[in-house]
């Protein structure tokens, strides 16, 4: 199980850094990464941001600031998706104004804890989960 998670994180990182793969294989891996990110999204984010990622989750009515519509993360129409900024926010490296006292869980910490701590294996697993989530968010942009 641990070995497969490390391999999955390696595949995701390979996609990020643009490893040269035959296009059919690359598309298949991209689909797997996006599907994994969708699962992460529904497990971690949908309760606040909504099943459709438009900021209308069941917990949104209890929050001081309405959750972001995650389908519109491009800074300007036609702009590029802020991939690493989104990654840092999910990981907890960047503060999110709407979450005040950090009501949004620091998913990087949670994912590392679920993987068994702060060792390299846990860090790789957490990075893979966050990367797949960011790829999914990039995929659903309007």
Overall description:
By secondary structure, the protein is mostly helical. 55% of the residues lie in helices and 0% in strands. Helix 2 (23-44) packs across helix 6 (120-139) and helix 4 crosses helix 6 (120-139). The mean pLDDT is 82.
The number of helical runs is: 6
Order of helices and strands: HHHHHH
Q: Assign a percent range to the helix content.
A: 40-55%
Structure class: mainly alpha
Per DSSP, what share of the residues sits in E-state strands of 2 or more residues?
under 5%
Task: Sketch the major β-sheet.
Answer: none
Distance between the termini: 35 Å
Using only C-alpha atoms, the radius of gyration works out to: 15 Å
**Assembly type:** single chain
Average pLDDT score: 82
Instruction: Say how many strands there are.
Output: 0
The rough form would be described as globular
Poorly predicted regions are: none
Keywords:
142 residues
Question: How do the strands and helices of this protein lay out in sequence?
Answer:
Elements: H1 2-16, H2 23-44, H3 46-49, H4 83-91, H5 107-114, H6 120-139
In a few lines, what is going on in this structure?
The chain is mostly helical. The chain is built from six helices and no strands. Helix 1 (2-16) crosses helix 6, helix 4 (83-91) crosses helix 6 and helix 5 packs across helix 6.
């Amino acid at each position: 199980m641990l070995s497969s998670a490390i391999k999955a994180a390696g595949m995701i990182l390979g996609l990020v850094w643009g490893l040269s793969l035959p296009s059919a294989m690359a598309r298949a891996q991209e689909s797997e990464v996006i599907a994994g990110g969708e699962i992460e999204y529904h497990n971690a984010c949908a309760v606040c941001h909504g099943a459709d990622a438009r900021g209308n989750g069941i917990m949104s009515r209890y929050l001081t600031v309405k959750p972001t519509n995650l389908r519109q993360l491009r800074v300007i129409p036609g702009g590029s998706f802020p991939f690493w900024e989104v990654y840092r926010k999910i990981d907890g490296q960047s503060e999110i104004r709407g979450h005040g006292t950090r009501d949004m869980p620091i998913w990087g910490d949670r994912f590392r804890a679920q993987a068994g701590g702060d060792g390299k294996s846990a860090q790789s697993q957490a990075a893979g989960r966050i990367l797949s989530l960011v790829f999914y968010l990039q995929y659903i942009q309007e």
